[in-house]
Amino acid sequence: MTEPNAITKAALESGEPTFRKVGVGPWAEEHPDEARPSGAPFDDDLLDNGDTRNVLDRYRYWSVDAIRNDLDAHGRNGFEVAVENWTHDFNIGSIVRTANAFAAGAVHIVGPHKWNRKGALMTELYQHVEHHPSITSLVESIRQADSEEMPTRIIAIDNVPGSVAIESYDFPERCLMIFGAEGPGLSQKALDLADDVVYISQFGSVRSINAGAAAAVAMHAWVAQHMPVTAQ
After folding, report:
1. How far apart are CA 192 and CA 171, in angstroms?
2. Which of 37, 56, 166, 194 is the most exposed place for a label (fewest CB within 10 A)?
3. Tens-digit pLDDT profile for the chain (232 aa)?
4. Could you please report the per-residue DSSP string of 146-209?
5. What pTM does this model have?
6. Distance of CA 99 to CAs 149, 178, 181, 197, Å?
7. Largest Cα span, the chain
8. Residues with Cβ within 8 Å of residue 180, at least 6 apart in sequence
């Protein structure tokens, strides 16, 4: 039998890690002196068995529909994101999850209807996800829904000649960010239809970061410019 690596052996003997508890147990155990709630927004199964989902504490025991409706009622942000699905990219699920975290107005998936949901970790249930057969049809639908007072600016995220550094770019309140597939990046049609092309500055040896990471950086750049931040 092969001896474990010295670092692995020390790690196994360290007694670490100790993680904090995530989620809550059944309502009766967590709130023994309180009456059990019933009806909306609560979910009976979660009240009975506990809630270990990756949701904010204020949404504990809430049903999926109630959470989604509450996000809509309190107002999602003015940006939306789109991702090209021509290569069935595993990053799409990660982009959906990040879009939910930053309260994107919607996620648009361009290309084949089937997409890799693994990285989304069920957050697609709380997020508006729309499908389009092509970039052209996506942009047309965005333009048709636009208002004259605040049209949507189409922003392609890719490091191509003529693009603008994200660190110096002023994101408009109303915009659609388009991300490409891992490897080839955005299609030429997406670049042609964009109002602006923005790149994320990088300082190592690789040419690009993966699409999921790029989407997270870009969405947070919008949030940093438009959203008031309070201490946790």
Report:
1. 19
2. 56
3. 678 899 988 888 888 888 888 899 999 999 999 999 999 999 999 999 999 999 999 999 999 999 999 999 988 999 999 998 877 667 888 999 999 999 999 999 998 877 878 878 888 899 999 999 999 999 999 999 888 888 999 999 999 999 999 999 999 999 999 999 777 889 999 999 999 999 999 999 988 888 899 999 999 999 999 987 765 5
4. --SSSPPEEEEE---TT-EEGGG----SSEEEEE-BTTTBS-HHHHHH-SEEEE----SS-S--
5. 0.87
6. 25, 12, 17, 20
7. 71
8. 83, 84, 157, 158, 186, 187, 190, 211
Residue 153 dihedral angles phi and psi, to the nearest 5°: -95, 130
Residue 139 is encoded by which pair of tokens? Answer: 């942009």
For the domain bounded by 76-226, which CATH number is listed?
A: 3.40.1280.10
| Two tokens, residue 120 | 């989304």
Domain with CATH 3.40.1280.10 in the chain: 76-226
> Residue 41: is the preceding peptide bond cis (ω within 30°)?
yes
Angle at 200 between CA 176 and CA 188, to 5 degrees: 55
Residue with tokens 């107002």: 75
The residue to which tokens 């009975």 are assigned? 48
Give the C-alpha separation, 187 to 197, whole Å: 12
